[in-house]
């Protein structure tokens, strides 16, 4: 993917911070500079509290942007101390962010584009799906979650084009993994491009499916991050390369988070997995 700017520290005003379903919130912040620059697939790092604790910023993917109002939205899940603190922040409060960061999705010349979102990975795909429709492209969405309550923004995706829905418990749609309807679809239809975001096991399964069908695919990887700008090397993943080992480590924050599916090694070859060092490109 083409590299973007590493971002700037910006002050933002919290416009809204509301709960959607248990432990999942939608945060809206007003920061015109970020709204004018950020692209679908990029992310921001948020300093969740004004004091020294917690020290590290937390990474959050873009959900939606409104350039006219200068607002940016993210959807996040409370999973630890940082996100719990963020969930208690109120409208009108100031918050510090770093962004935009990383590399976004690239629609290129594709005409029919598939979107695969799993759980919290659904939210970051909406902005790029809306962009695709604005550009006159056909959108086909495949969404999956544990239960129907956590099928985030499914109504918004339904307005954009054909949609396939699955849940782990069968409460909404088919009881299956999201890879199942995608595999069925590809047996009878072509996609020029597929974009996906979700848990790593889901992305690994998708990579195998699209590889068998020859579909160009971009995956947005989920990874723990410390700095967000490529300095700490805490978010590296193995990427195929013409080296003796067959791969190099790339940073999800600055080289990603969007990578081509056929670049990614989801498992390091056993002959090299115990070797030390980092060959970050």
What is the share of helical residues?
10-25%
The gross shape turns out to be: globular
How many β strands by DSSP? 16
Assembly state (oligomeric): single chain
Tags for this entry?
seven-stranded antiparallel sheet, 281 residues, 16 strands, seven-stranded mixed sheet, disordered C terminus, alpha/beta, globular, Elongation Factor Tu (Ef-tu), domain 3
Structure overview:
With 281 residues, this protein is α/β, with parallel strands linked by helices. The protein has 3 domains: 8-101, Elongation Factor Tu (Ef-tu), domain 3 (Beta Barrel), CATH 2.40.30; 112-220, Rossmann fold, CATH 3.40.50.80; 224-256 and 263-281, no CATH class. Helix content is 18%, strand content 33%. The chain is built from 6 helices and 16 strands. It has helices spanning 32-37, 81-87, 126-134, 154-160, 179-186, 200-213, and strands at 8-21, 24-30, 43-47, 58-61, 64-66, 71-77, 94-101, 112-118, 138-145, 162-167, 174-175, 193-197, 217-220, 236-240, 247-251, 258-260. It has a 7-stranded antiparallel β-sheet. A 7-stranded mixed β-sheet has the order 11-10-9-8-12-13-16, with helices on both faces. The longest helix has 14 residues, at 200-213. The two termini are 13 Å apart. The relative contact order is 0.14.
Give a quick precis of the structure.
The chain is an alpha/beta fold. 18% of the residues lie in helices and 33% in strands. The longest helix has 14 residues, at 200-213.
Topology:
Elements: E1 8-21, E2 24-30, H1 32-37, E3 43-47, E4 58-61, E5 64-66, E6 71-77, H2 81-87, E7 94-101, E8 112-118, H3 126-134, E9 138-145, H4 154-160, E10 162-167, E11 174-175, H5 179-186, E12 193-197, H6 200-213, E13 217-220, E14 236-240, E15 247-251, E16 258-260
Parallel strand pairs: 8-9, 8-12, 9-10, 10-11, 12-13
Antiparallel strand pairs: 1-2, 1-7, 2-6, 3-4, 3-7, 5-6, 13-16, 14-15
Helix pairs in contact: 5-6
């Amino acid at each position: 993917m083409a590299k973007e700017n590493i971002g700037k520290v910006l002050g933002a005003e919290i416009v809204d911070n509301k709960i959607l379903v248990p432990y999942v919130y939608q945060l809206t912040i007003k920061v015109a500079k970020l709204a004018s620059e950020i692209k679908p697939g990029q992310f921001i790092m948020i300093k969740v509290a004004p004091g020294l604790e917690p020290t590290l910023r937390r990474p959050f993917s873009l959900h939606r942007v409104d350039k006219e109002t200068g607002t940016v939205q993210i959807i996040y899940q409370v999973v630890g101390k940082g996100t719990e603190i963020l969930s208690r922040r109120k409208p009108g409060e100031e918050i510090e962010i770093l962004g935009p960061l990383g590399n976004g999705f690239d629609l290129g010349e594709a005409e029919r584009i598939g979107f695969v979102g799993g759980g919290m990975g659904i939210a970051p795909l909406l902005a790029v799906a809306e962009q695709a429709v604005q550009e006159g492209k056909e959108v086909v969405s495949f969404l999956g979650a544990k239960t129907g309550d956590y099928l985030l923004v499914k109504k918004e995706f339904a307005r954009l084009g054909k949609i396939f829905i699955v849940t782990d418990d069968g409460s909404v749609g088919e009881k299956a993994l999201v890879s199942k309807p995608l595999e069925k679809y590809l047996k009878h239809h072509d996609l020029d491009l597929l974009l996906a975001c979700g848990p790593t096991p889901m992305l690994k399964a998708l990579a195998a499916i699209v590889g068998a069908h020859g579909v160009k695919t971009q995956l947005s990887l989920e990874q723990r991050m410390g700095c967000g700008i490529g300095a700490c090397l805490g978010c590296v993943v193995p990427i195929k390369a013409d080296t003796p080992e067959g791969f190099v480590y790339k940073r999800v924050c600055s080289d990603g988070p969007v990578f081509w599916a056929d670049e990614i090694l989801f498992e390091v070859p056993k002959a090299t997995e115990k070797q030390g060092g980092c060959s970050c490109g």
